[in-house]
Amino acid sequence: MRAAVFRASHDIGVEEVPNPVIRRPGDAVVRVLMACICGTDLWAYRGMTDRRPGQRIGHEFLGVVEELGTDVTGFAVGDLVVAPFVWSDGVCGYCAEGLTTSCEHGGFWGQEGSDGGQGEAVRVPYADSTLVALPSEAASDQRLLTALLTLSDVLGTGHHAAIGAGVRPGSTVAVVGDGAVGLCGVLAAKRLGAERIIALGRHPARTELARTFGATDVVPERGEAAVKAVRELTRGQGASAVIEAVGTERAMRTAVGIARAGGSIGYVGVPHGSAAGLDLDVLFDRNIALRGGIAPVRRYIPELLPAVLDGTIDPSPVFDLSVGLEEVSAGYRAMDERTALKVLVTL
Prior knowledge:
This protein is of the alpha/beta class. The protein has helices at 41-45, 93-96, 127-130, 142-149, 154-164, 180-191, 204-213, 223-233, 249-258, 280-285, 297-309, 328-336; strands at 2-8, 11-16, 28-37, 55-56, 61-68, 80-83, 86-87, 107-108, 121-124, 132-133, 172-176, 196-200, 217-219, 239-244, 259-267, 289-292, 321-324, 343-346. The chain is globular and about 60 Å long.
């Protein structure tokens, strides 16, 4: 089969790789219909993570079940399914707590020895506890199918940030980051009842989408100027809930600066240099809570799926460029150069 692989820094290509096969009774093989490129994939693309030439890539996909192991009981061949970006056994202590990303037997698509989501098919371990069934009729609705793909990562990650930030009805929320996760954080905050949502971003197309998703205010400034602007919008107090969806030191400093005393920061931006921006004295003195981490999206899919199916939320506009698998390298370039927000990969 064909699959995207890491070759070298700034070189993601499509190569022939072995077809996935059932290795254990709980496995399934899923034929991929849609995948996408994530902001975290760019760190591999830029050579900033430990990847070996030939290693698979991609962790967001949905598709159709093609083959099942003998122990799989929850699915049938032909079922339309979505996969979270981590597989999990569903029975360990962490899974019982809903922290599927810490599963004792779990793993990430694209790690060494596993299939990546940006390929024609994927072997799925622990299929019964990992995969989530989708209505078969969604396969003929391109917009809905695209919206459902966000359940694999960015929608659940934005929701995780909103939960960590303590968003509740009537909240004032500030969102640091105008990427796909930050925009999904806006959607999540709106769905959870936030009264005011301040989006921090300076790219007009993205901030316009943020307003469509529910943002009431946009702050294009950065750094101290952004902190000042948010405080001016909130009578000098700051936001009671802050979503940090970038992961840099500057973004974390901004998140801390715009948080209201007694507020919370929900952080889901993969850290790259953000630790230096975490001033514990400030957090302590102002009673600011910090919660977040790798989003256990499998836990959230059952909650978010009905809202996507009935149109309560529509995250599909985060995809602003579509490429075929053979064009995936162009998709990476577009996201790296920030000419695309999030790239859909169709198969």
